[in-house]
C-alpha cells in the first residue's frame, strides 16, 4: 500500500492540514474540491496570505476512469464563520493497485480509478 506522499500528483501537499470543501460524483469521475496546504518543498510555495498560517490554494483532486465509488460514515460539514461549509483534512490517503482509500472528517471513501490528477483552481 502506497501513502499519498509517494504519489507524484500529491507529494507537495499536506492533506492532513487541508480542508475538503465538496465531493462530487459525475459519470466515471469523482472530484474532491479542497483548500490544499502546500508542503514546504512545493515548487510554487509562497508566503502565507494575511491571516493564514500556511500557503493554501483551492484545487480539485480528480479521479477519472472510476469503476467503483463508496462513501461510508458520511458526516455533515462544519459551518465556517463566513457561512461556507467544509470538512477537516484527509488523515488517510493510500493507494493499492487502482484502489484509493481515503478517510478523515468526511468519513471513508473507497475509489477504484484509472487515474488521479490535481487541478489548481484558486487564485495564486
Number of helices: 0
Low-confidence stretches: none
Radius of gyration, rounded?
A: 14 Å
Number of domains: 1
Helices and strands, in N-to-C order?
EEEEEEEEEEE
* Mean pLDDT metric: 96
Classify the helix fraction into a percent range.
under 10%
Overall spatial form: globular
Q: What percent of residues are in strands?
A: over 45%
Distance between the termini: 33 Å
How would a crystallographer describe the biggest sheet? Answer: 5 strands, antiparallel
Strand line-up across the major sheet: 1-8-9-10-5
How many beta strands in the DSSP annotation?
A: 11
Structural class: mainly beta
Structure in words:
The protein is an all-beta fold and 124 residues long. The protein has one domain. The chain has strands spanning 2-3, 19-26, 29-37, 56-64, 68-72, 78-79, 85-86, 90-96, 99-104, 107-112, 115-120. Strands 1-8-9-10-5 form a 5-stranded antiparallel sheet, with no helix packed on it. Strands 2-3-4-11 form a 4-stranded antiparallel sheet, with no helix packed on it. It is globular, with a radius of gyration of 14 Å.
Outline of this structure?
The chain is mainly β. It is built from no helices and 11 strands.
Annotate the secondary structure layout.
Elements: E1 2-3, E2 19-26, E3 29-37, E4 56-64, E5 68-72, E6 78-79, E7 85-86, E8 90-96, E9 99-104, E10 107-112, E11 115-120
Antiparallel strand pairs: 1-8, 2-3, 3-4, 4-11, 5-10, 6-7, 8-9, 9-10
Amino acid at each position: 500500500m502506497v501513502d499519498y506522499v509517494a504519489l507524484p500528483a500529491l507529494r507537495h501537499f499536506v492533506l492532513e492540514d487541508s480542508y475538503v470543501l465538496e465531493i462530487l460524483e459525475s459519470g466515471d469521475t469523482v472530484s474532491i474540491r479542497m483548500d490544499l496546504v502546500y508542503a514546504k518543498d512545493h515548487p510554487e510555495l509562497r508566503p502565507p496570505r494575511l491571516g493564514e498560517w500556511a500557503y493554501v490554494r483551492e484545487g480539485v483532486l480528480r479521479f477519472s476512469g472510476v469503476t467503483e465509488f463508496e462513501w461510508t460514515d458520511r458526516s455533515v460539514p462544519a459551518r465556517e464563520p463566513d457561512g461556507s461549509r467544509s470538512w477537516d483534512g484527509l488523515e488517510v490517503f493510500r493507494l493499492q493497485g487502482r484502489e484509493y482509500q481515503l478517510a478523515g472528517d468526511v468519513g471513508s471513501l473507497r475509489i477504484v480509478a484509472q487515474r488521479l490528477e490535481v487541478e489548481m483552481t484558486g487564485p495564486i
